[in-house]
């Protein structure tokens, strides 16, 4: 499989897991920190001024936010294989590192530089913890999924099967209940 395509599919899978984690962690935030999460804030600030969102009802706005969120995750995932090949190492560790790099480049870099959101350093600690954790989830899932898709079940770059570590952690992955 083409590495960029594998990365995009992996990034999409990572975004599914990330979104589930974000939703679960959002409910645990202190009440004062439960305002819209960055994907919605970014959509509102980027698309809002075009007037497109004015013509949408709330479910359509949520759908647009999710579409852009998943698209960004897939696009970032498409770049992952090129980075992973240069860095090497276990897919889950490389993926997590990449996920944290995406968070930093986004929330400390281009997003505040374009005046879309303030830098993460100005956001509440609980929300930063949520977003960092979500990017760890995204990166780990993206890394493992990309390694699996690119390796086709063969040995990965680190010498073992791409999902070897996950199989050791959970027999349920190998054997359905």
Structure explained in plain terms:
The longest helix has 30 residues. It is globular, with a radius of gyration of 17 Å. By secondary structure, it is mainly alpha-helical. Helix content is 71%, strand content 0%. Helix 1 packs antiparallel against helix 5 and helix 3 crosses helix 5. The two termini are 30 Å apart. The chain has one domain.
Order of helices and strands: HHHHHHH
Share of helix among residues? Answer: over 70%
Radius of gyration: 17 Å
Q: How many domain regions?
A: 1
Produce a short descriptive summary.
With 177 residues, the protein is mostly helical. The protein contains 7 helices and no strands. The C terminus is likely disordered.
Provide the fold topology.
Blueprint: H1 3-28, H2 38-47, H3 58-87, H4 91-113, H5 125-151, H6 164-169, H7 171-174
Helix pairs in contact: 1-3, 1-5, 2-3, 3-4, 3-5, 4-5
Labels describing this entry:
globular, 7 helices, disordered C terminus, mainly alpha, 177 residues
